[in-house]
Specification:
The structure holds 2 protein chains of 2 kinds. Chain A has one domain. In chain A, 74% of the residues lie in helices and 3% in strands. Chain A has 12 helices and 2 strands; from the N terminus they run αααααββααααααα. Chain A is globular. Chain B is an all-alpha fold. Chain B contains 14 helices and no strands. In chain B, α3 runs antiparallel to α4, α4 runs antiparallel to α10 and α8 packs across α10. Chain B is globular and about 55 Å long. Classes of the chains: A mainly alpha, B mainly alpha. Chains A and B meet through α4, α10 and α12 of A and α5, α11 and α13 of B.
Chain lengths: 293, 320
């Protein structure tokens, strides 16, 4: 039996990593739900968010202002990049076969991956977290790193914001309608072209924000996007492609499985998440909260 | 048809004399082309004929390669005997892997099938990485070579040509058999075929196993020429390779993917010899390919032929 200290620490790590996973998988899931494109480049967008955050944080001397600007810049920069990618490239393949769509986003992974090396170099970067988040809190005789708590709070805020947007605004209605029937939505007079661009920008911005939030706790460098992408895929498959709530639940699940898998089977945590995915796919192929194809 | 046979004979003759004029380095490249041509065509039996996008076909190429490596390194029986059995063993092991993976994957179609196959490839990648006693882990298996004279590039080229040629011939027979026509029907409308009383899943699974077996043969051919095998063969970037080759050559023709494989391999050699940014170059090539010539190289003449009538549209999902 593990000590309560270890259990609490791993739970916190699992939940906070789950929140980062949610920021990736929510965008991945939204983009798939509306655009019907599986975005392989989503991990690369996350990496770009982290790299932009590193650059911005390096330019501003005041740590707290720098950190806030890094978060905003990561999200805004990726929204712009996402808008360019959607209107320049993805828009042309909506009616093309699956393999063309997959190859296009795959090509983006290679292009963005090498572009990151050209712009930021091959070395790993990091940013320091602001003083007020660097410490730790004590409760129930246990120690909690503040930044992990901050990540959880940030994830919750984003999740609540997404929920409000999806269920309480006009655009949210459009997005939910588009996941059900795009042609019908277009026939009803909604500008789906603009909607698609907006959804891809939103998904990219979430990935960028996730990257910026992760920058203080991961090594930001080439290769960061790979593990992120694989985890994101596992999450959306478990949660159900197109379901944001499913992405939320599955993110927490995968985050916790990873955190405790490391304790139980060191080195094999990845296999464990894949096993989770295989079980879900066999028992409930559409994912926990996905709708039928 | 007469013209096609003549072209085929000419191509075969060219492939027979080709290596005589090449340096050892380019003979290695030619062997790589042969292996990847078989790999790409085996992949396209699923995509071009059955309409199944396997995004984890590197799994079978890798399983074939690892099997070949393990057979080549064993010391229980004479190397010559082991080598003679190797193509069959590699195909059987890959077919078994395809049977297990396919059992789950063919339950879904479209993008979900692609994701499932991709996930299983990642699972095999992790196994290749972690099962160090068997696979050598991160270091892979090195120092592989065929026995006797076949260790020389030129004899091995002819061995690879024989294997790839036989593989392509069998696959050609498969896609032109009643089974092959059933695959085309499945691509057009699986629902309709199902209503005709055909077991759709069984047909999909059979196609998946055949395709996986020949991808495994291709992996075995390449592993022994390459001399090393690493988990990178099963890495996620590897899953796009056969797709790019098939689309580059054109998925609508049987040998199109083989042409795509040749162009891809030669481009990789030429570009990666000059710059470390080969992925960037390939990404740009893929984007151009998809936007400007989605029917691939073999589609160019079809496009040219009807250019006078109308502009070539992107093939729509409905049209497939």
């Amino acid at each position: 039996m593990q000590s309560p200290v270890v259990l609490a620490r791993q739970t916190l790590a699992g939940v906070s990593n789950g929140m980062l996973l949610f920021l990736i998988s929510a965008g991945l899931s939204l983009i798939f739900g509306v655009l019907r494109i599986l975005n392989f480049a989503h991990g690369a967008l996350f990496m770009f968010g982290a790299l932009i955050a590193v650059s911005i944080a390096g330019m501003i001397p005041d740590p707290l202002a720098g950190f806030a600007a890094a978060l905003a810049g990561g999200a805004a920069g990726l929204a712009l990049l996402g808008g360019a990618i959607e209107s320049g490239l993805l828009r042309r393949v909506y009616r093309a076969p699956h393999e063309m769509q997959l190859l296009l986003t795959f090509a983006l992974v290679f292009i963005l991956g090498d572009a990151a090396k050209l712009i930021w170099g091959r070395e790993e970067h990091s940013i320091s977290m602001p003083q007020m988040l660097a410490g730790s809190a004590r409760a129930f005789g246990l120690v909690f790193p503040l930044y992990r708590l901050f990540l959880i709070a940030a994830g919750m805020v984003v999740a609540a914001g997404l929920w409000l947007m999806l269920y309480r605004t006009r655009w949210g209605i459009f997005i939910r309608a588009a996941t059900m029937d795009r042609e019908m939505l277009a026939a009803l007079g909604v500008n789906t072209r603009r909607l698609f661009t907006a959804v891809f920008m939103l998904g990219a911005a979430l990935a960028g924000l996730g990257g910026a939030l992760a920058a203080p706790v991961v090594a930001v460098g080439p290769g960061l996007h790979v593990q992120v992408l694989i985890d994101g895929f596992v999450v959306v498959v478990i949660g159900g492609l197109g379901s944001v709530l499913g992405a939320f639940v599955a993110s927490l699940l995968v985050g916790l499985v990873n955190a405790f898998g490391v304790l139980a089977f060191p080195g094999l945590a990845v296999v464990l998440t894949f096993a989770c995915m295989a079980i879900v796919l066999v028992v409930r192929p559409r994912g926990l909260l996905g709708t039928a194809e | 048809m007469k013209g096609q046979y003549a072209a085929l004979l000419a191509a075969a003759a060219a492939l027979l004399v080709l290596p005589l004029g090449l340096t050892d380095f380019w003979i290695f490249i030619a062997i790589e082309v042969l292996a990847f041509a078989l790999y790409a065509v085996s992949f396209n039996v699923l995509l071009g004929y059955g309409g199944m996008l396997s995004f984890g076909h590197a799994a079978f190429f890798g399983v074939g390669g690892y099997t070949a490596a393990l057979v080549a390194r064993q010391s229980a029986v004479a190397p010559e005997l082991a080598f003679a059995c190797l193509p069959v063993i590699a195909m059987l092991v890959s077919a078994a892997a395809a049977l297990v993976i396919g059992f789950f994957a063919v339950r879904r179609s479209g993008i979900y099938f692609a994701m499932l196959t991709f996930a299983f490839q990642m699972l095999l990648y992790t196994i290749a990485l972690k099962a160090t006693p068997l696979t050598g882990g991160d270091d892979g298996l090195t120092g592989l070579k065929p026995p006797g004279a076949l260790a020389q590039p030129l004899p091995y080229y002819y061995f690879a040509l024989l294997m790839a040629g036989a593989g392509l011939y069998v696959l050609h027979c498969v896609v032109n058999s009643p089974f092959g026509y059933m695959l085309r029907a499945l691509r057009a409308s699986a629902l309709r075929v199902q209503h005709l009383g055909v077991n759709v899943r069984a047909h999909r699974l059979a196609a998946f196993v055949v395709s996986g077996a020949f991808a495994g043969l291709a992996g075995a051919i390449f592993a022994l020429s390459n001399g090393n095998i690493f988990p990178g063969w099963l890495d996620w970037t590897a899953s796009a390779t056969p797709v790019v080759m098939a689309v580059l050559g054109g998925t609508a023709s049987f040998l199109g993917p083989a042409l795509g494989a040749a162009v891809y391999v030669v481009l990789e050699v030429l570009i990666s010899g000059r710059t470390e940014y080969w992925p960037l170059a390939m990404g740009v090539i893929i984007v151009i390919l998809i936007l400007l010539m989605p029917e691939g190289l073999t589609g160019l003449w079809r496009v040219a032929r009807r250019a006078g009538i109308r502009a070539a549209p992107l093939p729509t999902r409905e049209a497939r």
